[in-house]
Amino acid sequence: MDASLWGLGGEEEERVEVEDGGGGCGCWRSDTNGCIRVLEMAMKSASYRMDEQDLTDPVWCPYLLLPRASFTLKAFLLLQPWSGTFTMDISQVDYNEKDEIKGLIQEQLNSLSNDMKSVLQDPALSLLQRCLLVSRLFGDESDMQFWTVAAHYLQAFAQARQLSVPGGGGGSTEGPPPQAADGTLPASHGYLDICHDTLCESSYFQKFQLDRVHLQEVKRSSYEHTKKCADQLLLLGQACLVTTITSSGPSQSTIKLVATNMIANGKLAEGVQLLCLIDKAADACRYLQTYGEWNRAAWLAKVRLNQAESSDVLKRWAEHLCSPQHAVLRPCGALHRSLSEVRRG
Known about the structure:
- This protein has helices at about 65-80, 100-110, 115-120, 125-135, 140-165, 200-220, 225-235, 250-265, 270-275, 280-290, 295-305, 305-320, 335-345; strands at about 5, 15-20, 25-30, 35-40.
- The longest helix is centred in the middle third of the chain and has 24 residues, at about 140-165.
- Strands 1-2-3-4 form a 4-stranded antiparallel sheet, with no helix packed on it.
- Helix 10 packs parallel to helix 12 (about 305-320).
- A hairpin with a 7-residue loop joins strand 1 and strand 2 (about 15-20).
- The chain is mostly helical.
């Protein structure tokens, strides 16, 4: 990647760095004042800053505001505890800030469409729905994922309580929702999108992983590819092995001892496979977490363990993460713990 420094000239000459944007379609220029401009290959025309544009209509873009102003706007849209109804007029709020900043925030509020304002001011809009809507307005991907997962499992817990408690009475939000023998949620409840990976329900996640391995198996073309598929099928409990291994106590004890020795000698993957072979996936997850393989442990827990054991594995991961990532606590049913971690963070 070629780079060079040049002077812009003018009253206040700035030094900038120019780099190839890749693909021969243009390049970008990073100014020392924090502005990034995109140029075409001849470098005769370039993009320009938003504040240089003469816009006829206001544009919703909270990130054009100062950081503190953007956070104030977000908080204003999320919660207004001083009033029984939501308003789109921030001038009525008494807080220490310059009038100029308040004016910029009000401009952003005015740029929202009438439909969006009506939704935000709707008294029937729950706090959870409001949080999800505001995260989408701000284009905050991490917040969107957080509230999407939270909304999904809160709905699952609510439906589970209605099915388990006569009359739909209240109950504790701690602990996973009641599930069928196969680990599925109530039939009326949909699954969380697979893009959320190990935060999805165990049965759905396991089915997806099996389908994925079967697809890879059909297309395998080398020994390494075949070995990888066999390894995955073994971990998933689907490998068909010709062996003298039985469920007797001595056999399992011997295999477990061999697996432990292999792990101690640096052969973690092989030891984990042996433990899975004798239905000791919970022990395998603990070893993986001990050696820092948190993602692999969560994956294995989702495809081999029951809901309670899988939750224990994810809770240990959450305790390891501690802060600032708390999303793995929600599908375990530890809602109060998750919220207390968020407040503490």
